[in-house]
Automatic annotation (TrEMBL):
Organism (species): Hansschlegelia plantiphila
Name this protein carries in UniProt: Signal transducer
PANTHER family: MAJOR FACILITATOR SUPERFAMILY DOMAIN-CONTAINING PROTEIN 3, SOLUTE CARRIER FAMILY 33 ACETYL-COA TRANSPORTER -RELATED
GO terms under cellular component: membrane
GO molecular function, one term: transmembrane transporter activity
Amino acid sequence: MSVRRASAEARDRGLPPPAAVVIGVGGLYVAQSVIGGVFFTGLPAVMRKSGASLNDIAFILITVLPWSFKFVWSPLVERWRAPHGRPKRSRPVVAAIGAFGVGALAACAFIGPTALAPLAVAMMVASFASATVDIATDGYAVENLAAKNRGWGNSAQVGGAYLGNAIGGGVFLILVDHLGWTPATLVMAVALVALAVPFLATRETAPVTSKDAPPQSLGAALRRPEVRYGLLLVAVYVVGQKWAALLVGPFLIDAGVSLSTLGVVNGAGVTVSGLIGAFSGGYLLRRFGAYPIMQATLAVHVIGLIGFAVCAYLQARSPAAIAVLVGLQLVGAATFSLGVTALYSELMGRVSLAQAGVDFTLFQSMDAIVSVIGWQITGSFGDRLGYGVCFMTAAALGLAALVALPAIGRRGSSLRQADQGA
């Protein structure tokens, strides 16, 4: 469908033009990922360069907890943003909560990367604000995009995540290397404001929800077996795919890669690879389905982890070995984005349209909870066990997830058939 025709249909339903919605939410998705890129990709490398241990780095990453537990307050956010019987108020919610995130990131600029306790507090505030804005953004996107246009919103979400991580984990590292911590972090705070402007300029004309509609709740989500098995699917897949993510940046730094080089790899290389994987997902999903893609990407991931483990055991530091490691990272980025696209495509079929924001937030929170558990484990034992053991353990977990996926897929299919029969 053409953009012109989609815009005409949106006007007929009283919705904003889809292009305006996609650009608006896309800016917010990029901004949220800028914060994540700074905290979870850029900062660990800066801390390692400053002599921090893997345990210190793992401590800082507790600031992912708001993303892990945002499901707890997601019904409250949605009731505030979209009160039944009254007009939606997404823009005031995003503006108010987003201001706390910008202020907290600016505070990080003056705290510095070595003052762990105050830095963790400021990061926690920024992460809480970012996670809350994400709940409101997802709800706005679902309400203001017709069902046939929501694929555009999904592209904005996936692409925005990679672009934001490129800025926060790539451009940020280059700026730190050349300007220092404070100016680089302030530039990121200004970028957040600029990225929010398109959304704050959009109109919100989604229909008002009936005053008699039941309120959104976690209980309604957890009573549905499709959601419960979706949570299991997320947990298994994340254990297989994400638990070694914390180690890659510090390992490359220890192997002799400079901050600027790592910034270029994380910025341009990982972003391009990730976008290729994400945007190829639409075609591949239609042809092969979600579970075969998830299995294939897990298999590639396991092979990559074994490659990292071999380099770690051999203590490879030559330019050729570093080139191999960077290549493995780029291939891993492409397959990871493709696998996550398949995963969340599968999860979309498990979401109730009556409270899509709450259901989808549950899945995202499970992703974050399992991720942070793995990062804490690898960070706590990484210094004692070494990179080689950690990478091989992660590869074994990936292989276990690969074996478990078919059974979960069969159960998911039976639940759908039962639901349709009912």
